[in-house]
Amino acid sequence: MKKTGFTLVELLAVIAILAIIVTITVPIVTNIFQTSSEKAFEDNAMSLSKAADNYYTSLTLESDTKLPLLVTFNNGKETNRYMNNASNTCETSSERILEYSGQNPDSGNIFIDRNGDIYLALYDRQARKCAIKNPGDKTVTFTDKSESECKLTNNPC
Fold first, then answer.
1. Which of 73, 111, 124, 128 could form a disulfide with 41 if both were Cys (CB 3.0 to 4.6 A apart)?
2. What is the pLDDT of residues 46-104, one digit of tens each?
3. Is the residue at 154 inside a domain?
4. Beta carbons of 140 and 52 less than 8 angstroms apart
């Protein structure tokens, strides 16, 4: 009588081979997800930096400006605090002032002063990166600063 099927040794060999394959591929896939998350954050930070430049440029022709402007991100929500030069009062708004594409960062600030100098400090929890830009910097710099260190102290009012 001939028996068909797999022996215990054959099944254990297949399980061992699958375990080796999983051990090799899981770190590779995890690294791909982390890299794509970092790249998405870099693109968003560059988009926000460009939006701040565009905002200041568009205001140079207007007399009713909202400068200096502090854009604050907290858990992805945007809050704006600015000096309304028409009424000479400090105002706060949750409307989106900067026009950009992409997702809001988890936390951080963008500050635009009356001279058009732009300060940027943004943090993304998934990428675990901090984006920094100071006046005179041509590009945004990405660091491994913690979320609590990735902040600006500028205040428009």
1. 124
2. 999 999 999 998 887 776 678 889 999 999 999 999 887 777 788 898 888 899 988 89
3. no
4. no
